[in-house]
Amino acid sequence: MITFESVSKLYPGGTQAVSDLDLAIPTGSFTVLVGPSGCGKTTSMRMINRMVAPSSGRILIDDQDVAGIRAVTLRLGIGYVLQNAGLFPHRTVLDNVATVQRLLGLNKVQARAKAHEALERVGLDASLAKRFPAQLSGGQQQRVGVARALAADPPILLMDEPFSAVDPIVRLELQQEVQHLQAEIKKTIVMVTHDIDEALTLGDKIAVLAPGGVLHQYATPLEILTRPATDFVASLVAKDRGFRTLSFETLSGLDASGLPSPDAAGLIDMSSLAPGWGVQVNGQANSVSWVNSEGQVFGPHPLVRFDASLRTGLDAVLASPTSAALLVNGSGYPTGYFTLSDLGPLLRPSERART
Ligand SMILES: Nc1ncnc2c1ncn2[C@@H]1O[C@H](COP(=O)(O)OP(=O)(O)OP(=O)(O)O)[C@@H](O)[C@H]1O
């Protein structure tokens, strides 16, 4: 647990960067600090690894005040990913990643072996290990930055706008990779971003900061979207709010229809739904194809699980040529279907509030 206790930061020039911040970040969670430029996100984060000292208040890691831990010792247990990767330009990718293990006392061979593992974990090809940072794309550099921060297996990872310097497609890729990685490694991650979409996508919990470093809300993405605590938070999430909420709600409560049994060739007769239509189950592919009476095949279309998000369910319906999507059970076998009108009750906000 990382705990901020009444933490404030007043810089020498008189800027109040953080005001009386109380925050409890659970071990293993992904917490995002979000807010407009200059609202004290980076300052707050840097107080965790003592790159910035608070003017008042305390920061505890597992009940230990960080002010009492030697800065070097503290930072060896906290990975740090910077906006522009912050790689050493004259060291190879491999040696960049091996840096922390070298500081921890491993010899060159051991450190490089660990670095290879870390590069593999973030999906970087081994052939890139001998290159210098300038010979990599922005996205690759950022992956190296993540690999370096993770190489020594620190329990805490701080990330300062890690994806803001790459183009939107690479950004999405990196976000997905970090999500997968976190599901595997379960570090305590604290990330700074000014992008509310990124915060909603990645955070288990989001701390919304306003100018002056004032905390307006600390809550899950769904709570932030559906119950913004202040007008400031509401204005931050105003765009596409209703649509975004669909990502955080599931299909539970959906009143689906049962599926007829497939014939010997795996074709399911769907004519009661749409005359002349059938569905062909595609074996292991976890998808189906729709077939019309003229034998035209549409697909493959994804199968939807009951624990999928409302957004996934809606997307599957909109992409289907019959406006129906198929549900699968836990073993991947199609058991039912639903249409836009079945989704209707779940999509209506008043109904959603009741479930
Ligand atoms: N070393 C410093 N000395 C004086 N003022 C500083 C210093 N570092 C930051 N500040 C000021 O403190 C405030 C908060 O800065 P901080 O970098 O924490 O904000 P931020 O929310 O991370 O902003 P951004 O999204 O632009 O990075 C800003 O007004 C900034 O100008």
UniProtKB/TrEMBL annotation:
Q: Which family does it belong to?
A: Belongs to the ABC transporter superfamily.
- List residues traversing the bilayer: none
Q: List the GO molecular function terms.
A: ATP binding
Q: Which UniProt keywords apply?
A: ATP-binding, Nucleotide-binding, Transport
Please provide an example of a Pfam family that matches this protein in its UniProt record.
Answer: ABC_tran
Kindly provide the name given to this protein in its UniProt entry: ABC transporter ATP-binding protein
The organism of origin for this protein: Paeniglutamicibacter antarcticus
Q: What is the lineage of its organism?
A: Bacteria, Bacillati, Actinomycetota, Actinomycetes, Micrococcales
Q: Fetch the SUPFAM superfamilies from UniProt.
A: P-loop containing nucleoside triphosphate hydrolases (SSF52540)
What are the residue boundaries of the ABC transporter domain, all occurrences included?
2-237
